[in-house]
Design brief:
By secondary structure, the chain is mainly α. The chain has a two-stranded antiparallel sheet with strand order 1-2. Helix 9 packs antiparallel against helix 10 and helix 15 runs parallel beside helix 17.
């Protein structure tokens, strides 16, 4: 049209703007905007609304608002389009403000407006407003609208009101797959894998075919259950349905396989030819390597990501900093810290927590403390990370001081907080302090200790040589002692060459972990310390007869980019 010098009319301008928006071509969109201005049609409310929505979807919010304010005779269509654009741009708070402004102009929302604004309520957990919109929709529109009902089901599911969601779901005379997806995703997001998979089964029994959105919702449910077989069978359904080219699904599959312990399958999917990787793909596989104890592979993948011109975001950094901590790679950690500051991420609480943990595990507790003290928005993980930092570096008194300070400041304290401070007491041999803290867990905070808490106190008491108290404590436990508790007792028995307690501990450990040769080795060493060489040899022979072998110890250091 431009080459032929044909005038741009209002209809063609709106169509061209919509096409540029769909293609994510901001330059072409601006060119059409300029052309519309030159031909004097940019003030038409339909053209102006299209241009305004385009700028908002491209993230140029101020430009979009400025143009919207210039539109003469703004009607419900213009307002609804603008609200929808803000929701699609994930600017939910601004969308709700616009909704209220629209009502101040005496405009009542229609179905289109409601379908846009209800998801914003869901994202912000504005349940009260969402319920009001539901009531309004019932009064204003008696007929059933599938899209609006689906949006309301999603709202109730995301706010945890599944009775409301299910009531609305079963009242619907006809359901589309997106309606089922709202419940499947809702259950998965709160960790209710059983109901998520149950809804998936009912969807298939209804004769309706799942879509890619269904699979993205149901795969995390398999990961939460650690059900590799179920996850693999759903992968088969994905292949049969022809969804294998969907990169969102591929990312979800990589995540599922990694969390179900099949790292090789996750790697195979990540590296397969034809898979167009995005930043999310790299973040998922980096997290997978870290979760499965492969920090070096995580670092290599990060370098590859940079070569592919992807910039690390907050999720990348939160995933990779634990790998740095595991490797004790302080220099790389400090380089990441510099990048974080340069990108303005240092105020992100998750990033701050990861930096505290990384510096503590790299032996720079002073850096951890400095960053912790400078943090403006601390959450419970921030406090627990600092407590754990003191514990891992053997600073029990500082850990206790911080724990007491948390109590003074009424900071939230959970079972992880207690585990960290008890661990610090255990390493420092602070028996009295450990006893008091353990008792206060139930008495003052109404928290039930788990096996890790019990193991900490057992280790603390046994290392202090208080074996009668230790055995009495174990016998009175409300939980069945596990290998961690008997292992702590066995280690302490070796310290004091207490053969009888060592035998008791080993008897329980053989039942719990018959494959673990380390327990036999510890008791063998106790025999040797007591000069009972024949018993030590007999125990070693028994190990050989049962096919158990001592695990060889090893260590490594990085020097000049080489592992030794």
């Amino acid at each position: 049209m431009k080459r032929e010098k044909i005038m741009l009319n209002k209809v063609s301008a709106v169509s061209a703007i919509l096409a540029a928006t769909e293609l994510r071509d901001i330059e072409k969109g601006k060119e059409i905007h300029d052309l519309s201005t030159k031909q004097g049609i940019d003030l038409d409310k339909h053209v102006a609304t299209s241009i305004t929505c385009m700028y908002i979807k491209f993230g140029e919010l101020e430009m979009g608002k400025e143009l919207f304010n210039k539109i003469q005779g703004r009607d419900l269509v213009a307002w609804s389009a603008l609200i929808a654009a803000f929701v699609q741009a994930e600017r939910f708070t601004e969308a709700l403000k616009l909704f209220l402004e629209m009502q101040n102009e005496n405009l009542k929302p229609n179905r289109v407006t409601l379908i846009s604004i209800v998801p914003a309520c869901a994202k912000l957990s504005f349940l009260k407003l969402g319920k009001s919109l539901h009531c309004y929709s019932i009064k204003a529109y008696n007929d059933d609208d599938i899209l609006l009902s689906t949006a309301l089901i999603s709202l109730y599911a995301k706010c945890g009101l599944f009775n409301n969601a299910l009531t609305l779901f079963y009242l619907m005379p006809y359901k589309e797959v997106v309606t089922w997806n709202a419940l499947i995703n809702g259950y998965a997001q709160i960790g209710d894998s059983y109901n998520s998979l149950d809804m998936f089964s009912k969807l298939r029994l209804s004769g309706m075919k799942p879509d890619a959105g269904t699979m993205v919702g149901v795969l995390p449910a398999c990961a939460l259950l650690n059900d590799l077989n179920k996850g693999s069978s759903i992968h088969g359904v994905i292949l049969k349905s022809g969804f294998e080219s969907d990169f969102h699904l591929n990312n979800s599959l990589i995540d599922m396989y990694a969390k179900c312990g099949s790292l090789s399958s996750a790697e195979l999917l990540f590296r397969k030819s034809g898979f167009n990787k995005d930043l999310v793909s790299y973040n998922v596989i980096i997290s997978a390597y870290v979760q499965n104890g492969h920090p070096k592979e995580a670092m290599f993948t990060l370098n590859d990501m940079k070569v592919q011109n992807f910039k690390p975001n907050v999720v990348t950094l939160v995933s990779v900093l634990p790998a740095v901590a595991d490797l004790g790679a302080l220099r790389e950690g400090m380089a990441f810290h510099a990048y974080i500051v340069n990108m303005g991420f240092q105020f992100n609480t998750q990033i701050g927590n990861s930096l505290i943990d990384m510096y503590a595990k790299c032996g720079r507790l002073d850096f951890s403390e400095k960053f912790f003290q400078e943090m403006e928005n601390k959450d419970i993980i921030s406090w627990n990370s600092m407590l754990a930092g003191y514990a891992v570096n053997g600073n029990a008194n500082r850990a206790i001081d911080l724990f007491l300070f948390m109590q003074e400041k009424n900071a939230e304290i959970d079972s992880v907080s207690f585990l960290s401070v008890l661990s610090a007491c255990r390493h420092a041999g602070l028996v009295e302090e450990g006893r008091k803290i353990f008792v206060s867990m139930k008495a003052n905070y109404h928290l039930d200790p788990n096996l890790e808490h019990y193991a900490c106190l057992v280790d603390l008491l046994a290392r202090a040589g208080l074996f009668d108290e230790t055995m009495d404590f174990i016998e009175k436990m409300p939980l069945e002692p596990d290998a961690g508790i008997w292992g702590a007792l066995l280690s302490a028995s070796r310290m004091y060459s207490n053969l009888e307690l060592g035998k008791v501990a080993l008897g329980h450990l053989i039942k719990l972990e018959p494959w673990n040769s380390a327990h036999y080795v510890v008791l063998s060493n106790i025999y040797a310390q007591a000069g009972m060489w024949n018993d030590a040899r007999n125990l070693r022979s028994k190990m050989n007869e049962t096919g158990l072998k001592k695990t060889l110890g090893y260590s490594w250091v990085d020097t000049k980019n080489k592992s030794l």
